[in-house]
From TrEMBL:
This is Tetratrico peptide repeat group 5 domain-containing protein. Residues 214-298 form the Tetratrico peptide repeat group domain. TPR repeats lie at residues 38-71, 72-105, 177-210. The keyword Heme does not apply. Keywords: TPR repeat. It comes from the Bacteria.
Length: 644
């Protein structure tokens, strides 16, 4: 009769031969004789997992570890089982425990990296990159690890390192189609569309018809000015099931003047599952408005229902925005305001249309209107950002504008901008887009390097696509930026009375911005009011007749500051001191933040960051230090670096 050890060896052979039922039966017989046999428990657990009985597998692997807690391979497989059950944090902990038990266990490093990379998020990508590097130290001949490391590095902003990692993958495996595709994306981000096209062609030669690669090849062709070729790539991507390509295809067709085809593609996008429905609504609305088909557009979007959702009206706000946009384009400002009155949304286009309608209505009541200029000489070097009003809202757009204008002024280009809220509120006169420019994807890194002198290969004639932002705010730019972003004199009667009312109450205006709302949904850093309360207790006695103003999207937080007699816009309105600027109250709050004597910003808030950058009066700026759970002084503008 075979011993337990001999039976275990036979079962392992059966398992390796994929004769799982026979192996399972033998493991069960072993466990009848030796119920605490850790190897049999562990290996039986792997069979249960292969046969999709994961809960049973989990119990068996844990039982094995109860008997032999130092089994690194079982601990790693525990992590894999937990991962398949969606228990991500527990899986990561198991992988880390396996690595502690056996630092040379390549599979644990690889599994931890894949898990964290799959989760996404800034901290996960950085940790995933570390894990991939450790796995590569154990096995430097694995091209898949270089490929996955390249993805993690790119997601974490280390683009040049990501490029090197994909090249390492290709050196080991020259036929690695996905590595060529990922390399192409990186080359496009680094401003090399020609190199990207070579990489995409190689990838498609190895794996023809890949929808994602065709889509990205379309991006590179469009960026290289090969619009007709981009049409073919985007169309091929859409046929391969990448329905997100439909809006890109429509964009290129519009640029080519093939408006009827663009409209047909957009209407198709509105009924295809997985497509960019909000983008298609925005683009079709703009296309119909451009042709003066306002009534047709209003009827269509009033009736539109998305056919692939339990709630067919899930894009109601986007449709109302399109209706309002076409009232606005027809010169019916009051009707546009009426459509969106009482509607609450966070979408960029919704915010833009609603706010511009409100601003134009305010001007109309003064018997005035804002006339956007055309470019007086479009033959001269120029740049544009047609997406300026499509990503983020007021502050995000303004911060994008700062980078664009710094770039334009550095190299003597004319900047063209679409209608955006900051373009109406601030005293700007940039001309409208003249069209005909090549798109520039992933422009933020390139533009930052150009305005700071890290590179010297400027390019005019490009439409620089969002998202964009400056990496640092240099003191040398302060005066210029503050001179650009000043409210138009037309708006001062709406915003100045708030500051006047506060100055009537005290000599030192302390303004705090407390952001909640979508920060909670998106899990951004939350500024705790207790940190500001503790800071105010120390500061308050040192100030000359201070008055505290709270700008917040969560009025419940104001009560936390009761001992300082806080004032909000609502309080001033109730006292009759000011009249709220209906629908544009955020500009009244912004004006206070921009002119306060002491300014406290909210963590990760571009809105209060922009106000701090534009504030010429404050003698003290403070921000939350989430790690230390306190408030600390800071400078919105940084000293210039000695070298680029």
């Amino acid at each position: 009769m075979a011993t337990v050890a001999e039976a275990l060896q036979i079962a392992v052979g059966l398992q390796r031969a994929d004769r799982l039922d026979e192996a399972r039966a033998l493991y069960l017989r072993i466990l009848e004789v030796d119920p605490r046999n850790a190897h049999a428990l562990h290996l039986l657990g792997l069979i249960e997992r292969r046969q999709n009985r994961r809960d049973k597998a989990l119990d068996l692997i844990r039982a094995a570890l109860d008997v032999a807690p130092e089994m690194a391979d079982a601990t790693c497989n525990l992590g894999s089982t937990l991962s398949e059950l969606g228990r991500i944090d527990a899986a990561a902990a198991a992988y880390r425990r396996a690595i502690q038990l056996d630092p040379s266990l390549e599979g644990a490093h690889q599994a931890l990296a894949s898990l964290l990379g799959g989760r996404g998020g800034p901290r996960d990508w950085a940790t995933a990159a570390v894990a991939y590097r450790r796995a590569l130290r154990l096995n430097p001949q694995r091209p898949e690890s270089y490929h996955d490391l390249g993805i993690a590095l790119r997601q974490n902003g280390a683009v040049e390192e990501a490029q090197a990692s994909q090249r390492n993958a290709l050196a080991l495996h020259p036929g690695f189609a996905s590595a060529y595709a990922k390399l192409g994306n990186i080359q496009l981000e680094l401003g090399d569309p020609s190199g990207a096209l070579i990489s995409f062609r190689r990838s498609l030669t190895l794996e023809p018809g890949q929808g994602g690669t065709l889509y990205n090849q379309g991006n590179a062709q469009h960026a290289a000015g090969l619009a007709d070729e981009a049409v073919d790539s985007y169309a091929g991507a859409a046929r391969a099931g990448v329905t997100l390509a439909l809006t890109r295809l429509a964009d290129v067709l519009t640029g080519l003047g093939r408006l009827a085809e663009a409209e047909q593609v957009l209407r198709l996008a509105l009924i295809r599952p997985g497509s960019d429905v909000p983008g298609a609504i925005d683009m079709l609305s703009a296309l119909l408005a451009r042709q003066g088909r306002h009534e047709e557009a209003r009827r269509f979007f009033a009736d539109y229902r998305y056919p692939h959702a339990a709630d067919p009206g899930m894009f109601r706000i986007e449709c109302l925005t399109a209706v309002a946009e076409n009232w606005l384009a027809a010169g019916e400002t009051d009707r546009a305001v009426e459509v969106l009155a009482g509607v609450h949304g966070h979408g960029s286009r919704f915010f833009t249309v609603k706010s511009i309608a409100g601003l134009q209505q305010s001007l109309a009541r003064q018997g005035r209107r804002l006339e956007r200029p055309a470019n007086p000489d479009p033959s001269q070097p120029r740049i544009c950002s047609s997406t300026l009003a499509t990503h983020g809202r007021f502050a995000h757009n303004a911060l994008e504008y700062v980078l664009l204008r710094l770039y334009a002024e550095t190299y003597g280009y004319r900047l063209e901008t679409p209608d955006w809220v900051g373009g109406h509120y601030f005293d700007l006169d940039d001309p409208r887009p003249g069209g005909g420019l090549k798109p520039m994807h992933f422009g933020r890194r390139i533009l930052n390097d150009l305005v700071t002198g890290r590179r010297d290969d400027p390019r005019p004639g490009v439409d620089i696509l969002s998202p964009l932002f400056l990496f640092d705010y240099r003191e040398e730019w302060r005066e210029r930026v503050q001179s650009w972003l000043r409210p138009r004199p037309d708006w001062l009667p709406y915003v100045d009375p708030v500051m006047q009312a506060l100055k009537a109450r005290g000599n030192t205006v302390v303004a705090l911005h407390i952001r909640r709302g979508d920060f909670v949904w998106f899990r951004y850093t939350i500024t705790e009011t207790s940190w500001y309360v503790d800071w105010l207790k120390a500061l308050w006695p040192t100030l000359d007749r201070p008055v505290l103003y709270i700008a917040t999207d969560d009025p419940a937080t104001i009560g936390d500051f009761a001992e300082f007699a806080p004032v909000s816009l609502d309080d001033l309105a109730k006292d009759g001191a000011v009249e709220p600027w209906k629908g544009l109250e955020f500009l009244q709050d912004f004006h206070v933040l921009m002119n306060a004597d002491v300014l406290g910003v909210s963590a990760q808030s571009g809105y209060s960051q922009l106000a701090a950058l534009l504030n010429r009066n404050a003698r003290l700026f403070v921000e939350p230090d989430a790690a230390a759970q306190r408030i600390r002084p800071y400078s919105p503008w940084t000293s210039s670096s000695g070298t680029p």
